[in-house]
Write a structure and sequence with these properties.
The chain is α+β, with helices and mostly antiparallel strands. It folds into two domains: 2-79, no CATH class; 92-308, 4-Layer Sandwich (Deoxyribonuclease I, Chain A). It is 33% helix and 22% strand. It contains eight helices and twelve strands. The chain has helices at residues 2-25, 30-36, 39-55, 59-76, 108-117, 136-139, 210-223, 242-250, and strands at 92-99, 121-125, 144-146, 157-160, 164-166, 183-187, 190-198, 229-234, 254-255, 276-280, 284-293, 300-308. It has a six-stranded mixed beta sheet with strand order 3-4-2-1-12-11, with no helix packed on it. It has a six-stranded mixed beta sheet with strand order 5-6-7-8-10-9, with no helix packed on it. Helix 1 (2-25) packs antiparallel against helix 3 (39-55). The radius of gyration is 20 Å and the shape is elongated. The model has no long low-confidence stretch (mean pLDDT 95).
């Protein structure tokens, strides 16, 4: 029995160590990056293991897990804070990004959420022909829309109270799969370009270069557009993963931070993985982040408040 208990604790130590290595060195290999996604669940797991070690009378093992709790929390801390206050005197608006889930049998809940929260811009992802008719009640609430899901590699429906112009056709041809739309939004006397994106599943659930190639193509495309820009959607990657570091470093984009994970909804929020994001260039201030659980989808909707600086 003692051998089994020891092996159990050792396996947990190795797993938690892999998460830390993934956060710190995920750019070295996509498999390492995969472990990074589990940072928030790992904090809870380390707490539970510390308690079990204490019950088992293994003081040294308990202290090791307490050390993991401290280290993991330190890594997650900058990303779970609400956005820092930034002076912003320009027009303000709200944007909701939500993966509706292609097997969603309760699409009427999406319309209810939008009716209650009243976002100015809505980006719905994983929209397919079978799903689209169920979103008519949502679309009817907005005067402007772009049906990006009808185009290659894009699965977004963009709805807005402000005028929209689809500019995807003006973008340079990609050399790799580019799962992204592009619309110009006119908000009062200001304009911005909105890029809804939905990246592939990470390695090894997909090819080693799939997600890496997609985010590189997305970053390169956005770099060729000037002015205020927003990148939002389902990235299948956590904020601290190597995938999400690329738009932050190469485009100097700010990623909207905040507590709790957006996926999967069957886990408590504190144990979820934040894979649905909003990023903005420096002309814009990301001022708040709220999550909403909607029956029928395995993702939580992200509601962001944004202002022109």
């Amino acid at each position: 029995m003692n051998l089994f208990i020891g092996a159990f604790f050792n396996a947990a130590i190795l797993g938690l160590a892999a998460v830390i290595i993934g956060v710190l060195a995920g750019k070295l290999h996509p498999l390492l990056d995969l472990f990074a996604h589990f940072l928030l669940p790992a904090i809870i797991a380390a707490l539970v293991m510390a308690l079990l070690a204490a019950i088992a009378g293994r003081t040294t093992t308990m202290l090791i897990f307490v050390g993991f709790v401290i280290a993991l929390t330190a890594l997650a801390w900058p990303w779970v804070q609400q956005p820092a206050k930034v002076p912003a005197t320009g027009p303000r608006f709200t944007l909701m990004a939500f993966n509706v889930y292609y097997h969603n049998g309760q699409l009427e809940r999406v319309a209810e959420l939008v009716r209650e929260t009243k976002p100015d811009i809505v980006v719905l992802l994983e929209v397919i022909p079978r799903v689209r008719p169920g979103l008519d009640a949502v679309a009817s609430q907005y005067p402007h829309r772009v049906e990006c899901w009808q185009e290659q590699w894009c699965d977004a429906l963009i709805l807005s109270r402000f005028p929209l112009t689809d500019i995807r056709a003006t973008l340079p041809a990609p050399k790799f799969r580019r799962p992204m739309g592009a619309v110009e939004v006119t908000i009062k006397d200001r304009k911005l370009t909105l890029f809804p994106a939905h990246l592939s599943l990470p390695y090894p659930l997909n090819g080693r270069d799939a997600q890496t190639g997609e985010i590189e193509e997305v970053v390169k495309t956005i770099a060729g557009v000037t002015g205020p820009r927003i990148l939002t959607g389902d990235f299948n990657a956590s904020p601290w993963a190597a995938t999400m570091a690329k738009p932050q470093k190469q485009l100097n984009m700010t990623l909207l931070t905040g507590g709790d994970g957006s996926w999967p909804t069957f886990l408590p929020r504190a144990m979820g993985i934040p894979i649905d994001h909003v990023l903005a260039t420096q002309e814009l201030a990301l001022t708040s982040r709220k999550l909403f659980t909607v029956s029928g989808s395995d993702h939580r909707a992200v509601l962001a408040e944004i202002a022109f600086k």
